[in-house]
Design goal:
Layout (H helix, E strand, L loop, with lengths): L1 H16 L3 E3 L11 E3 L1 H20 L4 E3 L9 H5 L2 H4 L1 E6 L6 E3 H27 L5 H7 L1 H22 L3 H10 L16 E4 L3 E4 L7 E4 L5 H6 L1 H7 L6 E10 L14 E11 L4 H17 L8 E5 L9 E9 L2 E12 L1 H10 L5 E3 L4 E3 L2 E8 H12 E5 L5 E5 L10 E5 L6 H12 L5 E3 L5 H11 L3 E5 L1 H6 L1 E6 L5 E5 L3 H9 L1 H5 L3
Helix pairs in contact: 2-13, 5-7, 5-8, 6-7, 7-8
The chain binds glycyl-adenosine-5'-phosphate.
Amino acid sequence: MAKQEDLFKNVVSHAKEYGFIFPSSEIYDGLSAVYDYAQNGVELKKNIREYWWKAMVQMHENIVGLDAAILMHPTTWKASGHVDAFNDPLIDNKDSKKRYRADVLIEDYAEKLNLKAKKEIEKARERFGASFDEEQYKTTNPRVMEYLSKEREILERMGRSLGSGDLEDVKNLIEELEIADPETGSRNWTDVKQFNLMFGTKLGASAENAMDLYLRPETAQGIFVNFLNVQKTGRMKVPFGIAQTGKAFRNEIVARQFIFRMREFEQMEMQFFVKPGEEMKWYEYWKETRLNWHLSLGLGRQNYRFHDHEKLAHYANAAADIEFNFPFGFKELEGIHSRTDFDLKAHEQYSGKKLQYFDTETNSNYVPYVVETSVGLDRMFLAVFATSLQEETLEDGSTRTVLRLPSVLAPTKAAVLPLVKKDGLPEVAQKIIEDLKWDFNVAYDEKDAVGRRYRRQDALGTPFCITVDHQTLEDDTVTIRHRDSMAQDRVKISDLRQIINDEVSVRNWLMKM
Ligand code: GAP
């Protein structure tokens, strides 16, 4: 555990030291769970957003984009259920005065049981070797069966209690499991209470005329209220999708784990409108398609798993998370929800406007069902960044820090380095930059010995370093060094664009889907 914590601390400090992420308004001691993306972070974030947009919007003829405003008419949030039901169940510890999410305390407890089961399974795998059958072991070993069935029982009971609003039972569950304050060990708990997560604000100049608004807690509602506008003007035929990326705001009480749980964050969401009755087919389709998008980045299949929801949100008839193995364990990265016709019907009811689709095949109107895919851009950033940050021991015993980002997402694709700051080498390097910058984000670096410059670019995740030396002046060739293997090749300047493109093009990476 200590090792995991160290790893995570390393991620946070590397992100700051190398200009990826800073605490917000740091000169005033920061603002809890709010962060700013710095010069390299903003490039990485933009590249993740573009990778998603290409795959979801531009590669699908039947999906279009939208950029709806953050501020929306307040009735939107009444209709969507967020005013009444977008709550977290909170519990306070009377001794430590610390506030926790009751469901998170219970989920963490259940996760520990799961880890115990996994440990037993791994021990057995080592013992039995190649003949080990994990499924059989899970259903026959009494200890593993007990851990897993207890985990299931706890999560099911919590799901039922939260679903029916029985907060007393949620507290009973915490007491029965003897869950203690993770920081102090105290079990002196208050009752569980609901807390609405939306940030309120006001529109208007004077106090009397001001209108109460909310900062949107999800981008999805901007899509629902524009459903008919887009369908009509785009002549879209069901099934079709509307996608958007943008800021969302939640007054998270338990804000922790760096950019994993923020108060201001960015979502990349797509609502797919389908014929009622076909939603399960599309739900399965999007689960598979979204997982494949993640896998195309090459962070390792073992780092992803599906988690089917026991406790469904007020709008869903099926829901699953794609969980990622973050430095603090498996947690939600993306949600895939079958949202039924809940949202469109609710907006019809509250607005008095019809939000229906005319099916020319059956000559009838219906309210489409919706399958949603929703991934946090900041969580994607954390997943990619934390997994890519590695410490390596080299053959000569020295260590290097390397950020093995998928090169399609790397902030800078190549750094051009003159071997020395004289003899016309900087001028040649600048000429290479002038040519490459039309196609790629490239950097120039002439400070320090070339070895140190290589290390600096490794830590920034730059896939290529191009070194201009005296031979360049004679034959127009340079050395190109590959970040991951550190191998160096001598190549013609005129080939650089193609070499870099082969490695970093969105096309080549998305082809792996
Ligand atoms: N429209 C559906 C929706 O908003 P959600 O599961 O609440 O569903 C979707 O959020 C995704 O947004 C999550 O899977 C996560 O990646 C991201 N997300 C949610 N809350 C977040 C927060 N406080 N900080 C960072 N990302 C968050």
